[in-house]
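#lab-general

N.A. 3:47 PM
ok so I finally got the sequence cleaned up, no stray characters, all 340 residues accounted for. can someone with queue access submit it? mine expired

B.Y. 3:52 PM
send it over

N.A. 3:53 PM
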Amino acid sequence: MATGGWGPGTGPGGQAGHPGGTAGGGQGWGPPPGQPVNSPYGLPPQGGPYGPTAPQNPYPYVPPAPVPTRGRAPRRRSRLWFFSLPYLTGSIIRSAHRVASRLFVQAGQDHIQDRTVDRVQTARTVLGAAATVLLFLVYGTDQGGWQDAAAGSAAQALVAPVLLIVGGPLIILGFIYYAPPHLRPHLRSRLRVPLKTVGWYVTTVLVLGGILFGISLLAKTDLSGWQGFCVGIVGLVALAWGLPFFVLASLYSARSAFNTGHVHPMLPPVVTMVFVWVFAIFNFIDSGMPAQGPPGVQLCSLLGGPVSVTVVGLWELRRMRTRYGVRVRGQAPAPAPGFR
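B.Y. 4:20 PM
back already:
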């Protein structure tokens, strides 16, 4: 009897069953959807060479469109910013810093890059400055005390390279003489970089002094029109770049001791310890004991800086000797992993 395809069908082997006709009277509802079994076009492709492909989603996810905000659009910086005073000042300082660091801060072949020593030195400097400020706040200052302290610190930073140029050769010669005889020619051969650094600093002082002297002479003459304008512009540009460069060169020269680390890694701490006591003696001869606080505080204020610098310097020398094997006397060590 015809059932229109929805009645019980005949299963495999001619057995009667439910619609779809599974064997043994099973519940079946015909072949799975898709291409008919007896398709004249054959079986559909079963995927690429890597196996069957995953079915495509008929409803792919589309991210929602961004909602426009009502805020103001980011403001573009005007081109006039490049001619403003803050931008020009920053550009001049960055340019002077690049040139000064290239000339006066040069790492030698045996330079030891020890971050721990750098952190300790930075901490000592910060604590020393904080102790000075705390001393002024607790015991007060005389008339012009803050100005005198700032002027004294700036003067020491600028005078330090001059003292290094004058007294540094004596310390270096004594250091080389203390070394073993077979190492002295090697140490003397490394004096080229410190001498070149000293030459750059002396050239900076002479050029800047010549510019100031020339401007003072031209100021006494009667220059008018375009000549006076051109001279004024040249002098302004030279001073605007030369003064920051001179200050940075003085600071970097005092810190690196004119790159004496090229001669020996232990030489910069030795030079620093010697000159910090020289500055303390000159300061005591010039100004006497500090005027703030009781005698104990005055003594700590006078000797706190030199003693702390000496302690850190001795610790740095000991760390070089024990951790990196660097010594003044004895066989020259091979470069350790900490060398750069």
